[in-house]
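ok so I'm stuck.
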Amino acid sequence: MTTTAVVTESDSGLPVVAGIVPDVTGLDRVFDYLVPPSLTDVVALGSRVRMSLNGRRVGGWVVSLGSPASDLATSKLKSIDKSSGIGPDAEMLDLCRWASDRWCASRLRPFLVTASPNTVVTRASPARRTKVLAEPVSPAATSLLAQGGGVLRLPPSADQMPTVLAAARLGPTLVVCASVDNAQILATRLRRTGISVALMPHEWAQARGGVDVVIGARAAAFAPCPNLAVAVVLDEHEESLQEERAPTWHARDVLARRARLAHAPLLLVSPCPSVVGLHQRTLLAPSSEREHASWPTVQVVDQSDLEPWKRSLLSSELIAHLRHADLRVACVLNTKGQARLLACRSCKMLARCESCTGSMVENVVGQLDCGTCQRSRPKVCATCGSSVLSRIRPGVGRLRDELEAAAQRDVLAVVAGKNKDELFDDTTADVFIGTEAVLHRCRRIDVVAFLDFDSELLAPRYQASEQAMALIAKAARLVGIRERGGRIILQTSLPDNDVVLAAVAGDPGILSQAELARREMLGFPPASALAVIEGEGGGAFATSLSAMGGITVVAHREKWLVRASSHDVLTHAFMNTERPAHSKIRIEVDPPRI
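replied:
not stuck anymore, here's the structure
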C-alpha cells in the first residue's frame, strides 16, 4: 500500500492514485490503481469501485487517494474501470481501521462490508431534519443524557420509545436494537410521530443524507449519521449485539468509540445491564418499589432437597399451571442432546468447580473439566469424595410427551433450527416446550417455566450468570408485569444463587454487584481483556505471544486463552507478534462463549 496525501485539486498535473481494498474474501492487501480523468469527480475516499484483479473484475473500496509517491511506477498501474457508488466516508474509514485493530482482525474488508449500503447508492438523499417535539419523553433518559450519558436500567416491560424520543430532542440520534424486528417496530412508531427516520440497512442513502433518527440492528453501529448528537444501544445485555464470526466486534463498543469521537453522549438501555456495560459508567435505575412492580412474579421451585437424578422436571407447582385451561404456558429447556450436568449419588451435590463454582463435565480420559476457568480434577465429589457421579436431565423431545400427559392438552415443541422454513403458528396450542427459541417465537404467554435452571446457572461460561438473567428478562417481557398476572417459574437446586435472588426481588443490581466482584477475583472482563486463538499455527503464535509483556496464555482443548490487563495491551501484543507462515489462525477478542 502507498500512503499518500489527499488530492484536493484535479488539475494538479499528477495522476491520482487510489489505494483499494478488494471485496474478495481472504485477500487482505491494499492495491494501487490509477483514477482515470473521467472518474476524478466521482471517486472519493470510501467510494465503491470496480477494477481488474488477477484477470477478473472485482469490486472494492477506496481507502486512500492522492498523488503517487516518488518511487511508484505509475506506468505499471491499472486504472479503475468504473464507479459503483458511494460508500463509507473518511470518518467511517477511520472507525473501520480502529475496529480492525481493536478486534485484531488484520483486515478491513469485514468492517467495510458492514459500513456499506447493500445496494448501489450513487448519492445521498436530501437531508430531512425536523425539530423533534414528540411526546412522551423519558425524564430519566433526559437527566442521564444531560450528565453526559450512562446506563439506564429500564424494566423489561417498560416502553423504550420515550427514551429514544428524549435522545432525538438533542439532535441526530443513532439507535442500535437487539433485533431486526425490534428496529422495524420502533422505526414505524417513530415515523408516526412525524420524526424523520432511516431504517438500516435498506435506507442507507437517507441516513447518509441526514435524518433525525438512524435505527437498525447490530450492523447499524456502522451506519452513517452526520453530526451525531446521541448514540443509543437498546437491550445492551443481548448477545445478538456481538458478531458471532471473527472479528467478534460488539455494537456497544463501536458506538462508544463513535460517541467519544463526536463528543456525543452514549446511552445504554437494558433491564439487566452487563457488568462490562456498567464499567466506569453512571447508572440510573428506578426506585426499588417501582422496579419490583415492573417485573413479573418469580416463583422458585426449590429442588435442593431432592436427589438430582430423581428430580422431576414436571414439579407439582408446574403441573398446576399446565392444567389451568385459561393459561398459555411456555416451558424452556436448553438441552437437546446428551445431558452434561453431573451429580454425586452419595451426597446429592452437583459437580461444581471449587474455584469459580461453574459446572464440571467429564472429559475423554475420565477427569472432570471446568469449562469456565479450565481447571481439572479427578472424577470425585468435592464434598464427600465419592467417585460415583451420575448424569442428569432429559432433552426436549422426550419431555414433550410427558408434558402432554401432565397437562392433558396438546403441547407444541419449539426448537431453534427447526420450523424456520414453515409458517410458525402459535395459536395451534397453548402449551409449548422448547429451547429458548420458544421465547422468541411465541406471543401472549401467561407463564414461562424454566424446567432446569441449574443448566443455565452452571453453564461452563464465565458469562453464564448474566446470560441466565438475560433469559429471565426475555421471559419477563413476554409474560408482562406481576400486576397483570405475569409469572415465571424457576426450577432449581440453587435457590440462593444471585441470579435467582435478583429475579425474585426484581432487582438486577443484586446480580451486578456480585458478578463484578467475582469477575475481578477471577480476572475476567471488565477486569481484563480476553481473546481466544485457534486454528492451524495457533500454538506457535500463542507461544510467541506469551513472550510479550503483560500477556498470559493458557492452552485448553486445542485453543489458547489469552488474557491482558486491558484491550490496549492486548491489541499491542497481537499487532507486534508475527504470525507463522501459512498459518490459518482465528482470533476471537471478547469471546462471547468461553
